[in-house]
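Hi V.,

You were right to ask for the full record rather than a summary. Here it is.
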Amino acid sequence: MKKIILILIVVMLLVGCSENDSNNSSDAGQKEDVPNTSVVIVNDKEISIEMFNKYYAMQSYDFEKEFGASVWDIEQDGKTMKEIRQDQTLDYLIRVALVESYIDDKNLKVNGTVIDEAYGRYMDSIKNDAEIKTYFEENRIDEVFLKRFLQDQYYLRIYSDLRLEEISNDPKTHDVLFADKYIRYKTRHILLDSQEVLQEVLSLLNDEENPADFSDMARLYSIHATSAVKGGDLGYILVGNMPEEYEKVALEIEPYTVSEPVQTEYGFHLIFVDDRQMLQDMIDTGMPEEEIDGYKADIIKDYAAKEMLRIYNEMESQAVIEMHKELLNEDAVDGE
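Predicted structure:
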């Protein structure tokens, strides 16, 4: 298999720093202090303020174009939009540095031809856009940086694919997700937006002499329009796709019984469970194998996304991260 060649010059530009060798002088006490230009250091990877500025500009263009330059002064939760975007850019750079380390440890190097081709397609897409070309020039966004940015996306995609493959092929994953676990459930519900109406519906459902039909009550009272016309029927729902409070009850109550009121962000739910199925139940009912495989793939993908976030957070917590946000002054970020 043809080896993939790493473009060393691009990596050097990402690092964007010069190492300060204390052995260069025989008299360390006489050496002048060198101003720090690294806005963030992730383990041994240093990101200079100059490189930060380019990432910040690259990730801000569309937002500023849509809302105008004044958008950066708007405050949200005690921070200006500019400060929020700075934090987002730092988070992105930290994520890329950690992901690159993971990829490098596996000795998977970036394919220069792939990056060159992606760069060519991107430049073709903006060849008639004078505005963005001027913006790039003003912010010193050149070919080397754009290829670096595309390489980031390449690394992030490889990381995602590798993690998904690892998690999908891990026998523990299948045990966690499919061993004696419900895969999907079928419920009806009545969604209400006030305690007063809730009590009225409950009294009708619980009438000892003439209890109301659940589906009729859903049609009459539920504020969830799409299910109300079907008697509250939500059909089969894949585990993990409903609010946690709703799903907990749907997986625990006895089938064919009305639940106690369940409050979610949408209102108050009364839940009626028609069916719950494990993997074997789906097989036993004669569901086509392709459909079962589709369910399994969706469940694994959702689980993998959560696992990837957990693993990344673990990587970040174990990393040595040093930030110098004092460098993010107005002049530096604007590239002046």
